[in-house]
Design brief:
By secondary structure, this protein is α+β, with helices and mostly antiparallel strands. Helices cover about 25% and strands about 15% of the residues. The strands form three sheets. Strands 3, 4, 5, 6, 7, 8 and 9 form a seven-stranded mixed β-sheet that branches.
């Protein structure tokens, strides 16, 4: 039996030499592997970033990523090239962002303001079973899951744990004001009110007037903060309200934690008591921007667990064009639809611009025509 001489002069058998060559090609279990430049760069950035705030935290699944060797990557690349050659439109569509609802893949969370409006969706009418059909909202998250909450770090008078709690309570306010089923049926928004500083006199005056008057003024309309439908006029279709938006924060006045919410709510509704194939389904779309201040109790009179409102505004489409009634009034018939101001148009799914930046809002015309629903 032949052999190969080792470094110490000993003889290595042919079988051992063959095994050595096979393991060298395959990579013996547990053998150290020299990391690539990309891997070393990632490792260095992770070490340099130790102790920094996490990335944006969301409530959707975070798919794990695993780096593999060049062999597997080569097969994937070859398959991708073949796919591009055979089905170019379908393959490139996989890498699009918000395509307006053409894809069924849920959108990732929104960590910052998007750069453009969603793409156009196929012209499809909503149905009772698919109330978001033909809408970009079909790919949005359900309910509270669509409100992205950033990672917390010490800001102003609060440490990181206090900021995290304030962010969760800010999100809770949006849920209680815009998603609570009782509030949507016109009930008093007790839980949302409980998060507001009872010592903020202007807001407390607004709440008393808005929730007691049968004919509120534009400045005391409860819809400025709360989403409400009159049960005898409209009903929600299904159990889901689609949302998309985010919270952000910074240090505010007197060292307060100032939280800004920018969230769009999509409510599919139908005339009360109607259900069936020919039911007229309308999507009332509300984009709210609410700025909340979590004040330092040593500097501002407040109560634990409550915040003050700095500002609140909204863009509303398909919610009524007559004078304020305290409830959304979806346009279920042609007469209602004719009240919309055709000179001022708004894409209610375009989140690339600030709330209330449309010309129709600037010159006092609160009713606009939605370019899509």
């Amino acid at each position: 039996m032949g052999g190969v001489e080792g470094q110490d002069g000993s003889s290595v058998s042919d079988e051992e030499w063959d095994r050595f060559l096979r393991e060298s090609v395959k990579g013996a279990a547990g053998a150290p592997v020299e990391p690539s430049a990309r891997a070393r760069g990632v490792e260095r950035r992770l070490k340099e970033g130790a102790g920094q705030a996490e990335g944006w935290r969301t409530y959707s699944p975070a798919w794990p990523r695993r780096r593999t060797g060049w062999y597997v990557a080569g097969l994937v690349a070859a398959a991708a090239l073949l796919g591009v050659g055979l089905f170019p439109q379908q393959v490139f569509g996989l890498f699009d962002g918000d395509d307006g609802g053409q894809s069924e893949t849920p959108l990732a969370a929104e960590p910052k303001r998007p750069g453009a409006a969603p793409g156009a969706a196929p012209a499809q009418r909503p149905t009772w079973d698919e109330p978001f059909r033909g809408s970009p909202a079909a790919r949005w998250a359900d309910g509270a899951a669509g409100i992205t909450v950033p990672a917390a770090k010490a800001t102003g008078w609060m440490d990181a744990a206090q900021v995290d709690k304030a962010l969760e309570q800010s999100r809770r306010f949006l849920v209680d004001a815009g998603l609570d089923r009782g509030v949507l049926r016109g009930e008093r928004p007790t839980k949302a009110i409980g998060l507001l500083n009872p010592h903020q006199s202007d807001v407390q005056d607004y709440l008393r007037t808005a929730l007691s008057s049968k004919t509120p003024a534009p400045t005391t309309d409860p819809l400025l903060l709360f989403s409400r439908f009159r049960p005898r006029q409209a009903q929600l279709v299904g159990d889901v309200v689609k949302t998309r938006g985010r919270l952000s924060y910074r240090e505010g006045r007197r060292g307060a934690l100032e939280v800004t919410a920018d969230v769009t709510f999509v409510y599919p509704v139908a005339p009360a008591g109607e259900r069936g194939r020919d039911t007229d389904i309308v999507r009332t779309i509300v984009r709210r921007e609410v700025v909340m201040s979590w004040d330092d109790p040593d500097k501002v009179i407040t109560e634990p667990g409550t915040m003050s409102l700095v500002s609140y505004t909204l863009d509303l489409t398909n919610g009524g064009c007559s004078g304020p009634t305290g409830y959304f009034t979806p346009p279920f018939d042609a007469a209602d639809k004719q009240h919309a101001d055709s000179e001022h148009r708004l894409d209610p799914y375009d989140r690339s611009k600030p709330v209330d930046s449309d010309d129709a809002q600037a010159d006092g015309k609160k009713c606009v025509t939605a370019t899509r629903s």
